[in-house]
User: What shape does this take?
Amino acid sequence: MRLSIFRSQEQSDADYTLPDQEMTLLDALVYIKSNIDATLTFSAGCRASVCGTCAVRVNGKEVLACAYKVKDDDRVEPLQYHPVLRDLKVDKHPAQQTLKRSTAWLHDYHETSLSHQDEKQSETQTDCILCDACYSACPVYALKPDFLGPFALTRAYRYSIDKRETGVKNIIDTVQTNGIWDCILCGECTAVCPKGIDPKMDIMMLRSSSVQHGYTDPSFATQSFGTPDFGSGFGF
Amino acid sequence: MTDVLIIGSGGAGLTAALKAKELGASVIIAGKTYPTHSQTSMAQGGINASLANVESDSVEAHIADTIKSAQGLCDEAMVRTMCTQAPQTIAWLERLGVPFSRLDNGGVGTQTIAQRQMGGASAKRACYAQDYTGLKILHTLYDTCLKEEIEFLDEHYLLNLIVEEAAVKGATFLDIRTGEVKQIDAKSVIIATGGYGSLYHGYTTNAYGASGDGIAAVLRAGGAVSDMEFIQFHPTALKHSGILISESARGEGGYLVNSQGERFVDELKPRDVVARAIFKEFQKGLEVFLDLRHLGEAKLLELLPQEIALCKLHERIDPACELIPIKPVAHYCMGGIEVDNQLRVSALRGCYAVGECANAKIHGANRLGGNSLLEITTFGAIAAQNAVHYAAQHQVKEADEAQLTQDRHTLETLFNQEHDINFYEHREALGKLLYENVGIIRDNVQLTEAMQAVSIMQSQTIQMGLADKNPTNNTHLIDFLEFKNAMMLAALIIKAALQRDESRGAHFKIGFESANDAMFKHSITLSKETEV
Assistant: This one.
């Protein structure tokens, strides 16, 4: 079996031959590093799809290396929109800054009664492992590096619907700029999430909540003033 | 100079940081990865607290269960502290916004938190968030750290503690990205670097990075370790990948059956008992399976969604209609850095240790499921209190750069060293050796063989140089430094196991099949002087 992997020093792909057996991409990377080329650099942790360390792109689609079974001629690259530190290892700091900018935490706690139904409301959103797959798949970043992005907005949404939160408006206020209205609702984030999270839906829910808090879609507002903005389609 | 330097950014480190900050101290957390990538994310089943939300329970019962499982090796006062504070710890996590699973009982606050059965517990005591309890606690702690503007130094690999006149004054780190060796000065240090389960490479549920770096650093600095021989083998890891299937699968009613379809053990006994029972089936030439089929697909997807996905991916098994092939593998280290009842590291003033890296004398010879998340969140706060107090009470003069200079020199030498031997082969061999010779059932002949093998391996270290000479982002170098720590700790595990001529909890030795209280009802403590 042959695998092609992006090498940052050469700025090109290198080919590796693997034993013909079923293996995860992470096992394949470890095999290569241990037996063929110790300089191949990647990040790995739990092997069980929960630590969020090993996301990469295979044939242009984001996957967790530990949860993807390699196929002949697969092409492996680092995540997009992350500074590449070396080979498949990327700098996650710029992406993770979006959590801080979106104030995705519990602002003001108050004691309340929660039910099984309440648990279900944010069960999937809180499965997020911060692997950054959605960030890498989001086309908005190609044009707008300051976008808060899918995982941060999902997390903001998760706290905004927590019945323990009395500071919902703080969260809603924060996600207006470079946030929910910049999403083009393409659903690429949803398609690549290894935990089945639907950030697109969460962003739509935040939009709805924002309207209830008195905000309006800025691109829609522009359109209603008759400026010739219909052509952009993205509302930037 | 920071008041408190926390090394390790898992659940224990994040808890300690939040508490130290709350107390007004300046805090830095340095970790070798990103906070949410830590081992805490892998804890699945739950966190114990006698809330009695589901059935009658008490702090006393929690204490009694923990002491019983520890089989004579715990400090009962420490157990009492942890179990008594457990409800407050859960209340704190509730205030931070941890998305626990809930009951429909109309209560408020923590009263609605769902609780489940775990092995060795006399009541449904483990609060949970589906089978993602550790993940969801860890991420909520992280979100709160961002809120509280805690300073993180990610991708900083601990090299050594800086010690002058038996007081800790900071630590040296390798900045993995730049390759620079740095010194961080601190008035007090909390070590929260996790366990050493990944020594059992290929035979562990643990992440690659669980290599005991903090424990090894404490040993090098003159501290001690204890109970190193008590490695918990989790009964139910997937047979081929070693990936964990939570104990809650049995807590929710799963059976263990052998290849003849027979149940052979009470599935809810503590982990040491169940792991040995499975191992004995293996010795008879039988395979062992976890049987969840009778629980039904809907219940499985509700309670154990992560497990179901992992079985499908790694074993190509649908637990709703097929048996899950399992084997016990190394899962948790009961022992670790020797600390006193204030979590102070022995012989190192100003230094504290908490979580799996420390031996706080809670788990003794066998840890109960649901007590590790409780330990990191409860004792993480206590370690912080004590470290902040120490920092406030002591005038600390900045350390000189002797350690920094030495560590820079050591790394330079390593980069120039020959690499005739591929250490990855030895990492693999060490994992297999430990699993086979220092595993679930031990004997002195096999332990002695293992000790000899580790000694040979250590003597060959000089030939195991680096195949990757790039100073920046050199994960090969990190793998090697971890492996050196692993070899050091492996020798201590074996040494303690050889000394303990009895069977107690997770340590079971042929020829000495029962506990010998007269000789061994105490921890075996080892330090650099006793190191082989």
In short: Chain A touches chain B through 57 residues (CB under 8 Å).
